[in-house]
UniProtKB/TrEMBL annotation, chain A:
The lineage of its organism: Eukaryota, Metazoa, Chordata, Craniata, Vertebrata. It catalyses: 3-O-(beta-D-galactosyl-(1->3)-beta-D-galactosyl-(1->4)-beta-D-xylosyl)-L-seryl-[protein] + UDP-alpha-D-glucuronate = 3-O-(beta-D-GlcA-(1->3)-beta-D-Gal-(1->3)-beta-D-Gal-(1->4)-beta-D-Xyl)-L-seryl-[protein] + UDP + H(+). It is a single-pass type II membrane protein. The active site is at E214. Its EC number is 2.4.1.135. This is Galactosylgalactosylxylosylprotein 3-beta-glucuronosyltransferase. The record marks E158, N251 as: Interaction with galactose moiety of substrate glycoprotein. It is an enzyme of class 2 (transferase).
From TrEMBL, chain B:
GO terms for biological process: carbohydrate metabolic process; chondroitin sulfate proteoglycan biosynthetic process. Keywords: Glycoprotein, Golgi apparatus, Manganese, Membrane, Metal-binding, Signal-anchor, Transferase, Transmembrane, Transmembrane helix. The record marks E153, N245 as: Interaction with galactose moiety of substrate glycoprotein. It comes from Centropus bengalensis. Mn(2+) binds at D122. GO terms for molecular function: galactosylgalactosylxylosylprotein 3-beta-glucuronosyltransferase activity; metal ion binding. It is an enzyme of class 2 (transferase). This is Galactosylgalactosylxylosylprotein 3-beta-glucuronosyltransferase. It is a single-pass type II membrane protein. It catalyses: 3-O-(beta-D-galactosyl-(1->3)-beta-D-galactosyl-(1->4)-beta-D-xylosyl)-L-seryl-[protein] + UDP-alpha-D-glucuronate = 3-O-(beta-D-GlcA-(1->3)-beta-D-Gal-(1->3)-beta-D-Gal-(1->4)-beta-D-Xyl)-L-seryl-[protein] + UDP + H(+). GO terms for cellular component: Golgi membrane. The active site is at E208.
Length: 264, 258
């Protein structure tokens, strides 16, 4: 076993493109570190890290260089307000949207002139927890695959409802189960082929009701009965929507106490 | 292993023992999963998982069986009278880890190679930390991120020796350091068989200091992480999950582990 390095790239295994939006805050480096430690196990994984930032930061650049993973480092800043005509209105773009769309855009650009590899795209927020098994479940997605996600919608887990014949027929959620796709961002993967086939499909930027972000993308890609249920017909939880507490930095005071040159 | 003049293999890497107290709550499996994902990237790491429980749980037993690295699964329940806010936590579990190590090595001749550290299940560890701690001769120390109300706390080092503590809380403690900020060589634990985490007479926040007092001096400490100027471990904490929508009645038809 080779430690601290990803498994060698294989020409026959489908690639998993993981798109992770991220933003600067005290726990960022910790989150990206433990994510990298997980991704190092996964063969043929390409990590697309998109910073919500006007510039690529040294913190993220250095982390990615040292991690040993295949990666692409992008950035786009979410505007606090949007110019509409002559006025500025506050932007209600949900967090991560512009970054995920940039990831899709990069993917589409990368394979505009070359044949794309077999593989999938997965949106992995930087504070969730992923089992290694999850990546093998999603690897052979034909169009769009789905599975349960823990700790969303006020439940231990939300899950697609799967018929005895293995088709998705609904959603086991308490929060708005009648959404076209009542599923969390961490609960689906899309084949690269489909992403390239439908170049207009992306996350809607504005006017998206709470819980409808995922629908805004998926509705242009697939219908419910075209979904592929994974994780033993959606009976196993392989990903958890964990959230990290904001650390109390009370002792930093107004002007900061610790040496800002020490990276945290 | 390389040949060398006499064809002898180099000594094997000292084993790192990670003692992790853990307790049942919704995020437990997630925490153990991402910890395992980190630990499995470290050569010769032996994970000692100690449940705060009267018996081994099915969840942790199944988890340990499939964890993908050498694991020892222990359990000891915290007595009810110690489960109050403000009292130190995981004392019995860490001591159980120490007891297991001592028992396992009691008949073996010194010096026994190996290093142990206390890895709480919600912290975050970089792979570099394990390189740093593996060369511990007695007790090594390093900075910890996001603790003590600060971006980081750290030992203050001058001329390669610890001379003080840069901390947000009670810097007057003999060892003003977090549980995640030190490692101890196995031999030191074996040669101090009575050194344990204390309940009696231990004030809150003094656990680490009272423990280290029994086995070392500030003078003896080995500073790691570039003379304690790099943060390689973070005291992250996970939010309590919102289960407001879990039904009291009409439960699901299947029982799914989370």
């Amino acid at each position: 076993y080779v430690y601290s390095r990803p498994p060698p790239w294989s020409d026959t295994l489908p690639t998993i493109f993981v798109i992770t939006p991220t933003y600067t805050r005290p726990v960022q480096k910790a989150e990206l570190t433990r994510l990298a430690n997980t991704f190092l196990h996964v063969q043929n994984l390409h990590w697309v890290v998109v910073e919500d930032s006007p510039r690529r930061t040294n913190l993220v650049s250095n982390l990615l260089e040292k991690a040993g993973l295949n990666f692409t480092h992008l950035n786009v800043e979410t505007p606090k307000s949007l110019k509409v005509g002559l006025s500025w209105i506050p932007s209600h773009t949900p967090r991560g949207t512009l970054q995920r769309n940039l990831g899709l855009h990069w993917l589409r650009n990368s394979f505009s002139n070359t044949p794309p590899p077999e593989g999938v795209v997965y949106f992995a927020d930087d504070d969730n927890t992923y089992s290694l098994e999850l990546f093998e479940e999603m690897r052979y997605t034909r169009r769009v695959s789905v599975w349960p996600v823990a700790f969303v919608g006020g439940l231990r887990y939300e899950s697609p409802k799967v018929s005895p014949s293995g088709k998705v027929v609904g959603w086991k959620t308490v929060f708005d189960p009648n959404r076209p796709f009542a599923i969390d961002m961490a609960g689906f993967a899309i084949s690269i082929k489909l992403i390239l086939e439908k170049p207009q499909a992306s996350f809607k930027l504005e006017g998206v009701k709470g819980g409808y972000q995922e629908t805004s993308l998926l509705k242009d890609l697939v219908t419910m009965d075209g979904l592929e249920p994974k994780a033993a017909n959606c009976t196993k939880v392989l990903v958890w929507h964990t959230r990290t507490e904001r650390p109390t930095l009370v002792n930093e005071g107004k002007h900061g106490f610790t040496d800002p040159r020490v990276e945290v | 292993p390389s040949g060398g003049a006499k064809g002898r293999a180099p000594p094997p890497l000292p084993t790192i023992y990670a003692i992790t107290p853990t307790y049942s709550r919704p995020v437990q499996k997630a925490e153990l999963t991402r910890l395992a994902n980190t630990f499995r990237q470290v050569a010769r790491l032996h994970w000692i998982v100690v449940e705060d429980a009267a018996a081994r749980s099915d969840l942790v037993s199944r988890f340990v069986a499939g964890a993908g690295l050498p694991c020892t699964h222990l359990h000891v329940p915290t007595p009810r009278r110690y489960k109050r806010p403000g009292l130190p936590r995981a004392t019995e579990q860490r001591n159980a880890g120490l007891a297991w190590l001592r028992q396992r090595h009691q008949h073996l001749p010194p010096p026994q190679p190996g290093v142990l550290f206390f890895a709480d299940d919600d912290n975050t560890y970089s792979l570099e930390l394990f390189h740093e701690m593996r060369t511990t001769r007695k007790v090594s120390v390093w900075p910890v991120g996001l603790v003590g109300g600060r971006r980081y706390e750290r030992p203050v080092v001058e001329n390669g020796k610890v001379v003080g503590w840069y901390t947000g809380w009670r810097a007057d403690r003999p060892f003003a350091i977090d549980m995640a900020g030190f490692a101890v060589s196995l031999q030191v634990i074996l040669s101090h068989p009575k050194a344990v985490f204390k309940r009696r007479g231990s004030q809150p926040g003094m656990q680490e200091s009272d423990f280290l007092k029994q086995i070392t001096t500030v003078e003896e400490l080995e500073p790691k992480a570039n003379n304690c100027t790099k943060v390689l471990v973070w005291h992250t904490r996970t939010e309590k999950v919102n289960l407001a929508n879990e039904p009291k009645y009409r439960l699901d038809t299947v029982s799914i582990e989370v």
